[in-house]
Structures are given as structure tokens and as C-alpha cells.
Amino acid sequence: TQLLEQSPQFLSIQEGENLTVYCNSSSVFSSLQWYRQEPGEGPVLLVTVVTGGEVKKLKRLTFQFGDARKDSSLHITAAQTGDTGLYLCAGPFSNAGGTSYGKLTFGQGTILTVHP
Amino acid sequence: GAVVSQHPSRVICKSGTSVKIECRSLDFQATTMFWYRQFPKQSLMLMATSNEGSKATYEQGVEKDKFLINHASLTLSTLTVTSAHPEDSSFYICSARPGYEKLFFGSGTQLSVL
User: Fold this and answer.
1) Which residues of B are less than 8 Å from A40 in CB distance?
2) A94 pLDDT exceeds 80?
3) Residue from the list B34, B41, B97 with its beta carbon closest to the beta carbon of A111
4) Is the predicted pLDDT of residue A95 greater than 90, yes or no?
5) pLDDT tens-digit readout, A50-92
6) Cβ-based contacts of A86 with chain B (< 8 Å)
7) DSSP letters of A32-101?
8) How close, in Å, is residue B49 to chain A by CA atoms?
9) For residues A31 and A92, is the Cβ–Cβ distance under 8 A?
10) Given this model, what pLDDT does residue A93 score?
């Protein structure tokens, strides 16, 4: 089973600061997704990266997929209090039986708290 | 966009009772749905894959007799936690995808077993 290592686990910053969250694996992923989850809610998809070296931007959020498709990063510029939440990276679930694109394996998550 | 509805959003039950959680795809048909479990401030762990018209596929370490899954129609999957105990208290989330589009998650069910 492919594992995703996400860091840091906790991030507490002031409004206006920049931050980066990392998602690493020893395995190659065909794609990686980033989700944001608020307490008591299900995860909401932010972006899917598919091509090695790909960079996608979503307003103040920049997502990058590593050239070897083993890692990804999420960078937030000028964080706002509304960015507070649990950020999760995820990739298609694979085991000895093959890859299922409907099942996801998740990183441990990064709890981001942005203080006013 | 596609919507996945989960019910109830919160349930409190006594130890030893069974609890049923429903997951519905509101505007698409889903032959496959997925059930995840999440502990506080932790990530999601895949429990099982629910297959319409056939038996669910459970991940390693998940007791199939404890977590009964039924996918009786193309829009509904249910997860029943049987003889619930306090250690079963958790946040349960389902997901489904219309065809090969992105995965949509339900809003989750917080189960508290007293």
C-alpha cells in the first residue's frame, strides 16, 4: 500500500504570513489531490495534479506536483483566518490487487490555524 | 455539482446498540461508494468499498461483522455499526463519484457511543 507522509502536522501562524505544506511518498502516484476539511464536515476537493512538475494556482493557493510524481506541496500566500482548517493530500489507493481510482489513501493531514 | 448526502450528521447511542448511517448520491448513480473513518484531528482511513448488488470489500483490519455495509440501490449505501462500543466513537464519512469524475464526500456522521 502506498503511503503519503504529510508535514507539518500542525501549523499556527498569523494572518498575512506565508506557509507551505508538504506531501511526500516513496511511491509514484498517477495523480495527487489536495482537500480542505472543516470540523464536522466532509473534505472538499481543492485541486488535482496529474503531470509531473505541474503547478496549479487557486487564488492565493499554489499547488505543485514533483517531477517524479512522488511528492506535492501546497503554498498559501498571505494567509487569512478563513484558511483555517485541516488540509489533506490524497492519492489513488494501490495494493497488490492494483490501483483503484475511486479509493483514496490520505496523508496524515495538516491542521492549519491562522490567527487574526 | 454532484452531491452526496449523509444522514444522520450526529448520533449518540448506548453501548451495545446498533446504529445505521445512510449515504445517498442525490443527482447521480453510484455503483461504488466508499466508507472512511476519521478520529479527531487525524486523517481519513478507508474502511470499505460498497458495491451495488454485491458484497462490500473491506480493508485489512476492518471487521465486516462489526461494520455491515449494504448497497441495495444505485443511490444508497448504508453502514451499520453493530453492537457499538465506546471505541467505535468516530467520524464516519462516505464518498462516491459520478462515472470517472472527481470524488464527492458526504458531510460525515459523528458517532458517540456512551
Assistant:
1) 9, 91, 107-108, 110
2) no
3) B41
4) no
5) 999 999 999 999 999 999 999 999 999 999 999 999 999 999 8
6) 41
7) EEEEEE-TTS--EEEEEE-STT-EEEETTEEEEE-TTSSEEEEEESS--GGG-EEEEEEEEEEETTEEEE
8) 8
9) yes
10) 74
